[in-house]
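re the bet — no i am not wrong, look at it urself. input seq straight from the record:
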Amino acid sequence: MSFAKSLRVIGQSLEIAKVTVFQLESDGRNHVVQSDSMSRTAEWILRYAVREGDSSTLARQQSTTKTSVELKPVEFSNADIARLDAREAKRRREISASQTEPSMKLSHLLRILARLRGFGGREMTK
């Protein structure tokens, strides 16, 4: 997976956890995210997303988190990133398949109106 795609997937996870200030280190195979401003909840969200399928790791991390005062860095392996990317792609497909109509943003509605009314480049009047 490309470095840019890895960063996109990590960024999506950080957005979900509402982490805006962080430090990212990478050795090419693993990416480590650390933040002094990350809440315990945000750390848990990230760890859950990364280790979703590994309940033994989650149980061990939850017991560590309860006794630990210092938040630990969160590590994303290439396998974690690929799994998160696949899950997000599946979610996007499900959303687009379930929508019977395209999203109705103002720009989209105005474009439809222009086509229906034949405005082309002319000025609109009442």
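see?? Residues 83 and 89 are 10 Å apart (CA to CA). told u. also Residues 3-117 form one domain. so pay up
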